[in-house]
Structures are given as C-alpha cells and as structure tokens.
Design goal:
mainly beta, 6-stranded antiparallel β-sheet
Length: 179
C-alpha cells in the first residue's frame, strides 16, 4: 500500500522488457510492469535483481514432482532474500497491472517444492492474495491444484498443510486429515 500511495496504482507504473530463454531453449521476450519499486519497502539482505546472482536454487519441483521453472535464471523475475532468509521472486504482468510473487519460506533449504516450502501469490487490484484462491473453494484440493500453485490460500485459511498427508481434502467439507 505504501508503494501505491507513493507511485499510484500499479497499472500506471513503468514497463520493462526482458529477453530470456524458455524451458525449450527458445529465445523469448516479455514486457512486464516494473514492480521493482516494491523492493524499497522490504528488509532485503541480498538483492539479485533480474540477474542470476545466487538468490534462488536452480532446481524447484511442483507438488506433483514435475519440474518447476528455474527462478534463478529467468531474468523477468526480480529476486531477493529478506532478513529472515525468505526468498522472493516478483514479476508484473504487462497487460493488466497485476503480477505474481513466489515466496520460498525457508530460503535455499530443501525441499524447494511448490506447496511445501514455496508458495505462489498474485498481485491483483493492488492487493497481495493467494494465487487461485477462488479456484479452490470447490472440489478436492489435489484435483484442483496437483502442481501446488493454489496451496497458499489453503494454508492461510485452514492453518495447516494436511494435504502433505492425505489426498481427500476439500474446501468446506474436509480441511484436516483427522475429519
């Protein structure tokens, strides 16, 4: 909110373009909103910016154990480490003034697995919200998000990670293994 007060709504922030090589070895270009200004409001001990400077490990996996993107080497993410060891990667989307935030809560320590120690949030309408929150409010959690992208909303709402131990959790019906 302080960034919005100082710089206005994100949709009016400057844009920045990045060239990168995708997972298939293809050259790509991406234009994103410059959400780098958010870093001015955080307690950062190591700032990597958009370069590969050791903020993230190179290997992350999704909850279903498939390969996740390489945050460290993707230049369209602004990467940094906070004083408590949390690692963050920020990206703003070009066409809608929103963005995404990846948070690895235990830093470089393993497992580096989405939904276990790494969580995805969205910046939507200038608010930080769990990614896919509306998508998990019906149906079984693991059917809705086998990759783990929607798990931040579950953890914050039900204050548990029981999905690590049982597969039949469902919003509004069963939110703990013991139920």
């Amino acid at each position: 909110m302080r960034a919005i007060n100082d710089y206005g709504e994100m949709e009016y922030w400057d844009k920045t373009s990045y060239d990168y090589v995708d997972g298939n070895g293809e050259n790509q270009s991406l234009t994103v909103y410059n959400i780098d200004i958010l870093t001015k409001y955080l307690n950062i001990i190591q700032y990597c910016g958009h370069a590969s400077k050791g903020c993230f490990n190179e290997k992350y996996i999704k909850f279903d154990n498939s390969k996740e993107r390489d945050f460290e080497n993707l230049s369209y993410y602004n990467k940094f480490i906070l004083a408590d060891g949390t690692i963050i990667a920020l990206q703003g989307y070009e066409n809608n003034g929103n963005g995404e935030v990846w948070i690895d809560i235990n830093g470089k320590k393993r497992p580096n697995r989405i939904g276990e120690d790494t969580f995805l949030f969205s910046i939507t309408n200038s608010k930080l919200i769990p990614y896919g929150l509306d998508n998990i409010k019906t149906g079984k959690l693991l059917n809705k998000s086998p990759n783990g992208y929607f798990f931040a909303g579950w953890v914050l709402t039900f204050e548990n990670m029981d999905y690590l131990h049982c597969k039949d959790l469902e919003w509004g019906k069963k939110n703990k293994c013991s139920q």
